[in-house]
């Protein structure tokens, strides 16, 4: 199949996107939300919502220079600031209660920097544990597959593709200047689940074709397996991506970033499962033969 034949092109594309992602992370850094750095968030509703410029001006004059304003729905406004005391909260509420407008406070929450740091650490633990669990699961499932590629190499390839699938969407998010919060971590974990599912489907077909001995050449066996699963993988991912696109354009503002990173991640995950994971097995098999 052309995917195996032209694998160097697909490897090059992935290497370039990973390098660009790391470059974005190194130069711009993550825009951590209040979940991870601490802060306060207030959501209010107006009968006639003022524009961002007006709110920015009054907040700046009141001493809330670093506040971030986000419009939600038709009448709601979400304001994120550094952690506020009760006195500062009352001052903020009074500041945005513009004369001539009716305002209702819908939600207020605050997270201290210590809790934010703890959440950040737990998020990294969650990602590492999920990757480890997936690798162990694949090594166990493919334990009886030893020729021509050992079972542990299936797990290693899966790990590499999973890292690819979370690095690239994270790099895109950094480049776009999007805020990283707990929903961002949930999205990354979801991306890994979808990606590994697609990868296992292809790997399982390779395992079956190895048992059926469809070819004595491993590359041909992999190409045949990809051809048999290609349409299914693409159609499944496209269906999910259409739903996510609908959620992004027509859903509430609070889920836009979440649906966006899922949309990007599922696209990248499908690409890696089809164009990266299985061709990598072919590369490992060829290296193994050269070493013998």
Walk me through the topology:
Elements: H1 2-5, H2 7-28, E1 31-32, H3 34-37, E2 39-46, H4 52-61, E3 68-72, E4 76-81, H5 86-96, E5 103-111, H6 113-141, H7 151-176, E6 179-180, H8 182-212, H9 218-250, H10 256-291
Parallel strand pairs: 1-6
Antiparallel strand pairs: 2-4, 2-5, 3-4
Helix pairs in contact: 2-7, 2-10, 6-7, 6-8, 7-8, 7-10, 8-9, 8-10, 9-10
Overall description:
By secondary structure, the protein is of the alpha+beta class. It folds into 2 domains: 2-34 and 114-291, Multidrug efflux transporter AcrB transmembrane domain (Multidrug efflux transporter AcrB transmembrane fold); 39-110, Alpha-Beta Plaits (2-Layer Sandwich). Helices cover 71% and strands 11% of the residues. The protein contains 10 helices and 6 strands, in the order ααβαβαββαβααβααα. The chain has helices spanning 2-5, 7-28, 34-37, 52-61, 86-96, 113-141, 151-176, 182-212, 218-250, 256-291, and strands spanning 31-32, 39-46, 68-72, 76-81, 103-111, 179-180. The strands form 2 sheets. Strands 3-4-2-5 form a 4-stranded antiparallel β-sheet. A two-stranded parallel ribbon has the order 1-6. A hairpin with a 3-residue loop joins strand 3 (68-72) and strand 4 (76-81). The longest helix has 36 residues, at 256-291. The radius of gyration is 24 Å and the shape is elongated. The two termini are 26 Å apart. The model has no long low-confidence stretch (mean pLDDT 84).
